[in-house]
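Hi U.,

Before I forget, here's the chain from the pilot set. I'm dumping it here mostly so it's searchable later in email.
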Amino acid sequence: MSEQRTRPVIYAVWLIIASLVGWWAAFQLTVEKFHLLENPDASLSCDLSAFIQCGVNLNSWQGSAFGFPNPLIGLTGWMAVLVVGVALLSGARFPRWFWAAFGAGITFAFGFVCWLISQSIYELIVLCPWCMVTWAVTIPTFFATMLHLLRNGTFTRSAKARAAGSALMAWVPLATILAYAVIIMMAHLKGIDFLGEMARILF
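Structure:
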């Protein structure tokens, strides 16, 4: 059996929530990109401060890493995640090869996001609000997916390994918080006071 006997309800619900949030962020970035194409000097709604804005990212070559705007990847990729989440919640079971392919896609997304984070902080020296929303849902989705692949037998048939995957699922929120903290620290060391910027914007 490549699937657990019980439906992974929590994981499925998370995939649905993450995909909707990620798709909405990608959609907003796409709209902002259209605004820039129509008026390169436009002030975007997500340009909140010198360090918290979308314009710099969207106008950079990193913002079109594959020759087209990155948000288009999110618009399509998050739909695939949504379909998987809804299917799981409905009781669908997928073969091992499907989970391997899905895991590869999520791993690519995570790696791409890590690269964009490094480029945003160290090269562009700016944090894009909608990009950060994408980072915020991609990171826990990667952690949860890798552990799900461990517990459902995609990585190994070992009963102990599968049990460990199930047990470690409870640690995904903590791992995610630690990852967020690392990003904030990276930005701070580069001179981007994220928390201070957000406090000034909000208050």
